[in-house]
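Weekly modeling sync, notes
Attendees: AB, CL, MP (scribe)

Item 1: holo prediction request
CL wants a bound-state model with inosinic acid before deciding which constructs to order. AB pointed out that an apo prediction alone won't tell us much about the pocket. Agreed to run with the ligand included and paste results into these notes for async review.

Input as submitted:
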Amino acid sequence: MSVTVIVGSQWGDEGKGKIVDILSERYDIVVRYQGGANAGHTVLVGDNQFILHLIPSGILRENTVCVIGNGVVIDPKALLEEINLLESLGINIKNRLYISQNAHLIMPYHKLLDSISESGANKIGTTGRGIGPCYIDKYARKGIKIVDLLDSNVLEEKIKINIEEKNNLLRKVYNHDEMDVDEITKEYLEFDKIIDQYITDVPSFLNTAIAEGKSVLLEGAQGTLLDVDHGTYPFVTSSNPTSGGACTGSGIPPTKIDSVIGIVKAYTTRVGLGPFPTELSDDMGSKLREVGAEYGATTGRPRRCGWYDAYMLNYSRMINGIERAAITKLDVLSNLDEIKVCVAYEINGKKLKSYPTDVNQMMLVKPVYEILPSWKTDISKIKYYDDLPPEAKDYLSFISQQSGFEICFISVGPQRQQTIEL
Ligand code: IMP
């Protein structure tokens, strides 16, 4: 049995939810390893659309066990909403959902500080879900963890200390109203009553399951270029969506990981600020946005759209160790006049030798394109690779060769059955 990591290979929103949903049928356990309710995985089952922010989309398969790892930052409000939604849909989550005792809690002051920070000079275009401030507290060793919910005295004390400090900041630096300790403590003790039953020693649970031969799918949120270490810093999220994050965020050691699958959109999108070399600010960008329904699943923001960037994907493949990729939304490129693929970056007419990690350099790069013909037919009902039009096959083989991975899935529409497996 295998342990597989799924990573977003671009700037997130690659369609991971759908591929994880398909793959989760083949795995015993699905684990989310970083990020928080900033992610939004849209999954269509029949006519029902689900957007899950925290709980792995594997929860929609009745035999799959789902785990939220220590690398995730949990907003209890968002988690409870999701639990309630799933229960209202008749989906049983008892004994199917496990939450790491070491995951950190998003507190009301994290969301407030996120929005205050976004109104200043260091604007990133965040989702406003308190992600950055929560990870700041985690790394400053001030965070409140899920395990703290188990002891009301510990919880109260930690909230008190944190709020005193945050109130100082709010009053003195931001001239903002203070937050109320009692109100927040009461609210979080209420969450505890519901969340308690799911709290687990996740590393022991997962490593025992692997030793017993169970298969595990580790699901990253966001994408490689949003990684705090390997992305387009500072325009990134505050965690490690890359495959390395799967180990630290779950407690599964690197020696137990068998393979890494990259989820790769057939073109590129980005939400929020930051460099985007192949961005299309013209009618073609609007067309991709409309045809691909490129609006944020969490915030509803229109996504910036552009051509496929094989140069970036090569970097992403290297950082993550991607061997196989699932290409999503290929149908969106049907009926275009031509399709461009970025194969290199240039600055002042000179080709770069390696992917730039400095955002100022990124802002200067010019993409070097190869132009390919589009296919003028609807491919959304095609079930087998052999039935794809030759131009679509050429496009796939070009991006696979330029990016350095094999293709294992091709998605041609949002439904489960609109997927070609190779
Ligand atoms: P944060 O994660 O809310 O702090 O936002 C930091 C950056 O990551 C912003 O540019 C967001 O738009 C982006 N981001 C966060 N989550 C997602 C996601 O799930 N998909 C795409 N972009 C995201």
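Recorded for review: The longest helix spans residues 152-172.
Action items: CL to compare against the apo run; MP to circulate these notes.
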